[in-house]
């Protein structure tokens, strides 16, 4: 099942799309931590809301309305979403991401963990947050594209409900770049919950672009790694042209590392066989 993905990685024709699950492997707080912080700062009694009635998008929107800016919340996140270098040095997941040498890594994470990991492992990169950064792309230099913004630029952060709704046009410079990058390459999604409607929308739009082109059969195969097998999600995602990958009989907290280790070993094995021939 991994043969096509391994071949694409070896040919540098694969893009990695990394979500919050990647940073959570080194202790990044969950969205629930953000909800609790905002509720505490704005004196909201969470017990008045049932579990699904209040999400971080709506709460961040309310925060902006009350505080006049998302800036203070962004500053709090920057402090609390930063992982010590020692933790990143020991992160096998981040080490494997660097080792696999994807030419382009997209991430919806605001934190700097991927960038710091590249630096710790001696890998050059260019960070792309906006249209100005796209002009800085250099041949052969890996790109880290901050799809939902970066802590260094408040205006780039996509965290509140309005931010997400504005992105549904799929017409920002970063969206246009993604469509261009993705049309001709294999994509591997890791670290995502399929409850993320923004990512589901992105996947659907990409699939629809290929369908409308009339060349859907020529689309490179793309993949999504999920911590647990879910036949309902799998059927929907496969309809959109994504192959679902899982690690059966593996604890969820070890699944991503196990998968990336197997993938890296398969790429190395293919390289060794080519060298011998």
Descriptive report:
The chain has 277 residues and is an alpha/beta fold. The chain folds into 2 domains: 211 residues, Rossmann fold; 50 residues, no CATH class. 51% of the residues lie in helices and 10% in strands. It has 14 helices and 7 strands. A 7-stranded parallel β-sheet has the order 3-4-2-1-5-6-7. The chain is globular. InterPro entries: DHS-like_NAD/FAD-binding_dom, Uncharacterised_Sir2-like. Pfam families: SIR2_2 (PF13289).
Q: What's the SSE blueprint?
A:
Elements: H1 3-10, E1 14-18, H2 20-24, H3 31-41, H4 56-67, H5 71-80, H6 85-89, H7 92-100, E2 104-107, H8 113-120, E3 126-128, H9 131-134, E4 143-146, H10 161-167, H11 173-183, E5 186-190, H12 197-213, E6 222-225, H13 231-239, E7 242-245, H14 252-276
Parallel strand pairs: 1-2, 1-5, 2-4, 3-4, 5-6, 6-7
Helix pairs in contact: 1-14, 3-4, 7-14
């Amino acid at each position: 099942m991994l043969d096509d993905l391994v071949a694409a990685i070896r040919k540098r024709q694969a893009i990695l799309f990394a979500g919050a699950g990647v940073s959570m492997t080194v202790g990044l707080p969950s969205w629930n931590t953000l909800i609790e912080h905002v509720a505490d700062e704005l004196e909201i009694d969470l017990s008045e809301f049932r579990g699904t009635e209040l999400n971080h998008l709506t709460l961040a929107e309310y925060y902006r309305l009350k505080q006049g800016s998302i800036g203070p919340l962004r500053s709090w996140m920057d402090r609390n979403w930063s992982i010590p270098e020692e933790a990143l040095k020991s992160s096998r997941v981040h080490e494997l991401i660097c080792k696999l040498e994807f030419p382009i890594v997209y991430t919806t994470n605001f934190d700097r963990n991927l960038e710091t990991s590249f630096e710790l492992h001696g890998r050059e990169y260019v960070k792309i947050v906006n249209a100005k950064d796209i002009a800085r792309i250099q041949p052969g230099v890996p790109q880290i594209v901050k799809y939902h913004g970066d802590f260094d630029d408040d205006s780039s952060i996509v965290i509140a409900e309005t931010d997400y709704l504005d992105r549904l046009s799929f017409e920002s410079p970063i969206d246009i770049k993604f469509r261009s990058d993705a049309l001709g390459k294999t994509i591997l999604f890791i670290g995502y919950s399929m409850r993320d409607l923004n990512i589901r929308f992105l996947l659907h739009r990409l699939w629809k672009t290929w369908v409308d082109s009339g060349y859907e059969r020529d689309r490179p195969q793309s993949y999504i790694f999920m911590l647990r097998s879910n036949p309902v999600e799998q059927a929907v995602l496969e309809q959109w042209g994504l192959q679902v990958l899982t690690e059966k009989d593996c604890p969820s907290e070890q699944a991503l590392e196990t998968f990336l280790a197997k993938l890296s070993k398969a790429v190395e094995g293919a390289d060794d066989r080519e060298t011998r021939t």
